[in-house]
Design a protein that fits this description.
The chain is 30% helix and 31% strand. The longest helix is centred in the C-terminal third of the chain and has 23 residues, at 218-240. By secondary structure, the chain is an alpha+beta fold. Strands 1, 2, 3, 4, 5, 6, 7 and 8 form an 8-stranded mixed beta sheet that branches. Strands 9-10-11 form a 3-stranded antiparallel beta sheet.
């Protein structure tokens, strides 16, 4: 009986998260924008009644951002049907995540990385028993951390920044002491941006730090934030032609 109740409780946590995430599903609304495309998978799992997020550490052999924490993902391939295909293909290549073990929930508002790629976050549930098999050419480590850390962190900094196109914003930077690996990980930049937004959508509560959204109108303010960023990048691209 107790096991049955526990199972129902966990399913209820997942169902609540699914419903909230689907409200924010952008589908392919931004896919037409004239930027090179990439996608990342935000893999959620339930452990001990809490939502956790799986992240990777980029291999030191990589040219771009070696040793940095990120989500599984990468550039779109000609064979990818959409951003979901890209995120799942990359997760399989990087950490051995089998497609049949993934429940895709939605696509959230994209971001733009420092190479001006349009990066779409794809949110999915994975099994808490998943054992990653990192591809050493791309990934040096894999860890999980509580999603709640991205609204109530123990170690947080904010870094103001200005893009090359003149756009001003704030960058979140979290340091997480992982009890499993007994080491600290720094999560910042676009990875932190996506993780914070995911936590805001699911928990619907004010974080212990400032964010660039109107939390009472999260859908419209997050889309406006992105379109302002995109406009600044696009204007710069046009001026360079």
């Amino acid at each position: 009986m107790e096991a049955e109740e526990k199972k129902e409780e966990l399913e209820s946590i997942k169902e609540k998260a699914r419903l909230r995430l689907r409200e924010f599903d952008v589908r392919d609304r931004f896919s037409h924008l004239p930027l090179a495309r990439a996608a990342v998978l935000l893999p959620l799992m339930l452990r001990a009644g809490k939502l956790y997020l799986l992240l990777t550490v980029r291999s030191m052999q990589l040219r771009r951002s070696p040793g940095e924490v990120c989500f599984p993902g990468g550039k779109s391939d000609a064979t990818d049907k959409d951003e979901i295909d890209t995120a799942l293909r990359e997760a399989k290549e990087e950490v051995g995540l089998q497609l049949e073990k993934v429940e895709v929930i939605c696509r959230l508002v994209p971001g733009i990385d420092k190479m001006n790629y349009l990066v779409t976050p794809v949110v999915a549930f994975i099994e808490d028993t998943f054992q990653p098999t990192p591809n050493p050419d791309e990934v040096s480590n894999v860890f999980v951390m509580p999603l709640e850390y991205f609204v109530e962190p123990l170690n947080y900094q904010t870094v103001p920044y200005k893009t090359s196109s003149g756009y001003h914003g704030r960058m979140h930077s979290f340091t997480y002491d992982d009890p499993e690996h007994k080491m600290s990980f720094r999560i910042w930049g676009l990875t932190a941006h996506f993780a914070v937004f995911l936590a805001l959508v699911i928990f619907r509560r004010r974080p212990t730090f400032e964010v660039d959204y109107d939390l009472d109108n999260l859908i419209s303010s997050s889309e406006n934030y992105f379109m302002n960023l995109y406009a600044s990048v696009y204007e710069r691209k046009k001026s360079n032609i």
